[in-house]
Fold each of these.
Amino acid sequence: MGLRNFFDRIEPHFVKGGKYEKYFAIYEMVESFIYTPKTVTTVAPHARSYIDMKRIMTYVVIATIPCILFGLYNTGLQTNLAIAEYGPSGWRAAVIEALGIGFNPNNVLANMAHGLMYFLPIYIVTLIAGGIFEVIFAVVRGHEVNEGFLVTSMLYTLIMPASAPLWQVALGIIFGVVIGKEVFGGTGKNFLNPALVGRAFLYFAYPAYMSGDSIWTPVDGFSGATALAIGASDGVSAFAAHGISWMDAFVGTIQGSFGETSTIACLIGLAFLLLTKIANWRLIVGCMLGMMAFSGLLNLIGSDTNPMFAMPWYWHLVTGGFAFGLVFMVTEPVSGAHTNTGRYIYGALIGFMVVMIRVVNPAFPEGMMLAILFGNVFAPLIDYFVVQANIKRRAKRNA
């Protein structure tokens, strides 16, 4: 009660007419983070619901917990395995040694601790850099600071490689927040996913730090290709030679960004989002059908020069960022399609595009990031044609 009374006591200074009026966005951000907003609907015609923006964003962050935990473990596992061959390097290894944790890849706690040493700096820098610009735009416009940034910051962190320089992490999230969201008016008005905008900016501006074989495991001298890079060069049959089974890829003990390697962790998050009705199942169905149909078609066509033509749909599912993008990016409600029919089309377009980019374009063995951004651009157009088709159908029926 003491904290509630404190907020009530200082609130008059931040509302209109108060001496700190221009900083109301900061007050509201802190107060609404701790307490449910006091302003609720009490009369018709508005519907009352326990689902508000804060709860939706909180649910999405909760859904990422399996990916976070496994990302910590896998990052530490891959790092400790590499250290066994190349030796420790960097300040993180020095801290691990000083704490007496060690680098045993068979020790779950050692892997989690080492992974945390890479995850926390990236996440903290993301929160600080992106949060500053969120607050600046909110104060200048007189808007509330939206909880959507908590989701953006977590998703952005989970799609970053562990070796990403922190100054690039800050630059990417600032670009994503400002160019991907705030220039269009803020949360709810952006047509692109801000986390992906920031990641795409870094991908094209600093490709050596965001792609290749040496960025996924942050140990000097170590080089390890992702499953998609192996498939693009040598085909699916080469996975076994590199010690990668389908179950390894499904569980997630392979090279990749923090949160994207484990399909099973993503599916746990998906189950939570579907049960809480935060994610729309039509988007999932559309994307899966688009990916499966086009990859199956390419399997039938075949190619003597491109081994990716032979990659079946169940390998596309567990490699790269497909599962993570499917669960947390495709289902993102703001930048996706909003009509039910449009959601099928939107999802199918992304599923088709990710296979197209992975297989036909040899320059981008991943593809999910670009496919989702491509879908974001076309989502308003898809909804427009769906709505126009409904209008014409009703006009014809009532003529």
Amino acid sequence: MDEKDLSDLLANVKIDPSLTSRMSQMDNFKLPELMVLKTDIEAQLEAYFGLLKEQGIGMDSPLVTPDGYPRSDVDVLQITMIRKNVNMLKNDLNHVLQKSHVLLNQHFDNMNVKTHQKANDNGANSGDQPVQYAIPFAFISEVVPGSPSDKAGIQINDKLISIGSVHAANHSKLQNIQAVVIKNEEKPLPVRLLRDGQILTTSLSPSRSWNGKGLLGCRIQEL
């Protein structure tokens, strides 16, 4: 490989310099800026995975033959560089998510304080005015026909803002959804969704009394 070919290779697989620059400034970012950075990192990762897929290679596929020689059917150098960048971007994405969770907690803490203050100013019980969350944290990737989710009007690509008491600041990688669903089996759970830019509310009753698996009959994935 001559110097020009190597230069072209490096240009093809290097991390977008703007991502590196923004990561160095991340501590000063507000939540909307972090969400844009998260999306851009995910897009870069998707591009890298696409390059690996073109060569029929995954992150753990061997790059040497059983005899210990570099494989001739794939670009070993390119793949090695892509894998290195993927691991770096995964770490960056994890840092962004951690920072965004901190900011989300601060955001919702401030909302709670303002809600309690407003309730006190009005002479009302703060429990009478629950916080209305508006930031989605997951999306619906599958809805089984006839399932509790289907009956509740939930659709594919709906973004989940809250389900019961679970929202963006406390879902713990979606683990708390399972807990609240099991706890409320055969009971109506309030669900708040974002669909086509509009916030919708519905009631979902987790149940085993339908012809399918699970209590919800939908697939929920973290944003």
Amino acid sequence: MGEDRHMRVLVALIGAFSLLGAGAAYARVVPDPGIAFTISDSRVTESSGLALSTRHPGVVYTHNDSGGSAAIYAIGPDGRTRATLTVSRAYNRDWEGIAVGRDQAGPAIFVGDIGDNAGGAQPYVTVYRVPEPARLADQTLAATAFRLKYEDGPRNAESLLVNPRTNRLYIASKQFGGGLYEAPANLRADRVNVLRRVGAAPLLATDGAYAPDGRHFVIRTYYAAHIYSAPGRLLRIVSLPNQEQGESITYSADGHSLLAGSEGPRSPVYRVPLPGDASSEPGSAASSPPAAAGDPAARSDGSGVRSAVLLGVVAIGGFFAYRRLRGRS
């Protein structure tokens, strides 16, 4: 097996053990998901994030991974590109996540240049904010750049979220001991903003998104979607379809399903239905109480999650031991 094959085996082991370790209180295997649409634009070969438009029904935004152009693609429900939004005063070093929030004038798109595959080489990361256009057409949008750094040192990350209630920005790191980091309430473009850890994040987190009503949020891995009721409060783990390299996720407009995408040319985006307790209900967001202590939804680091981490470590250890034995033989 080549290195790519070894990595796929490793990721599969971690995904399987994570779902097993989560236990019945958390894990859900959903019915066979259907394909919502297939991204048909030949320029989009490494879709690394998805964000639901707040202005254009049925439209999601995506972008390419590192080395791509500084462009956002507006994809319609048929998978065709409705508009290409070129971001001026921006550079795609390693774009990994996208979310929709607000600026002073109205809806805005946030794009996260937050990848750090070198493992701590970047002293800070950059998030670009552009206004969400009222009319979908090819155009150039001026970006406001925000520099951010983690309070506990550089991290590799691929998940960018914006809370629709508060417009607060969050980043979930990807490596072992991953965390969810909260940005300041008011981002400043004239200084470095400090990201503060507010909760745990699953191992190998590749994208995240808030539900349209802000009641829940999701952080996905290659094989599962972790639904939270608040930072640090895990509600459910939902299995995801097997994808080439599952790196993007967002909610459907009604909040009852997830849209899960993948890197690769002509990549399908699956519609994954959510169980009732993890689904959004229109009009209930403002009155939704926080999870009570002792409730499964309030346990971010309970026995199920600890078991998942432990089994993941065992899987990784076994994987590398296997490789070492193969090398000796």
